[in-house]
Specification:
By secondary structure, the protein is an alpha+beta fold. 16% of the residues lie in helices and 39% in strands. The chain contains three helices and eight strands. It has a four-stranded mixed sheet, with helices on both faces. Strands 2, 3, 4 and 8 form a four-stranded antiparallel sheet that branches. The chain is globular and about 45 Å long. The mean pLDDT is 91.
Length: 171
């Protein structure tokens, strides 16, 4: 639904596509604590989708880079959108997040964490609910709540055309 209050833009609007891993083990969820322009924040392992990868591949990559844990997405929890105004510069940005659940794999203890990641944490849902002021995104809690409600969709719901992985695409 288009919001008539939003001014029409002469530039084509393009949301930032992100991928996120909802990783649960023994009633605790794997989160990262990271430096942001707004201070230290909590997030699910998440990041931007890179060129040439599917959303599930991007999610596995981001989980490894941010937590040093291998992760294999097995289901789509949901697709989410949120709009923010960046602290630095005031830029208006919309994010579209693909959140996945899956299987936690091997841990690489010697692997350095991505730039900005301070540490990983295993938190209960009650601890996550009690720390909303520290969440990097309101989507963090929503993704976990949907996961806890049993929301899962097959990975086949996301079709990735083979053209995505081609090195050069000519018209």
């Amino acid at each position: 639904m288009h919001n008539p209050e939003m001014p029409a833009s002469p530039v084509r609007w393009k949301p930032n596509v992100t991928v996120a891993a909802v990783i649960e083990r023994d009633g605790r969820f794997l989160l990262v604590e990271e430096h942001t322009a707004g201070g230290l924040k909590l997030n699910t392992p998440a990041g931007h989708l890179d060129p040439g990868e599917s959303p599930a591949e991007g999610c596995a990559r981001e989980a490894l880079e941010e937590t040093a844990h291998h992760f294999t997405p097995t289901a789509l929890v949901g697709v989410y959108m949120a709009r923010f105004q960046k602290v630095a510069g005031g830029e208006d940005v919309t994010y579209m997040r693909f959140a996945f659940s899956g299987d936690l794999g091997a841990f690489e203890p010697e692997r350095p964490l991505d730039t900005g990641i301070v540490r990983t944490l295993w938190l209960t849902i009650d601890e996550i609910r009690a720390s909303t002021e520290r969440h990097r995104s309101p989507l963090l809690l929503q993704c976990i709540e949907d996961y806890l409600a049993g929301q899962r969709y097959p990975l086949g719901l996301i079709h990735v055309d083979p053209s995505v992985t081609l090195p050069n695409l000519t018209a």
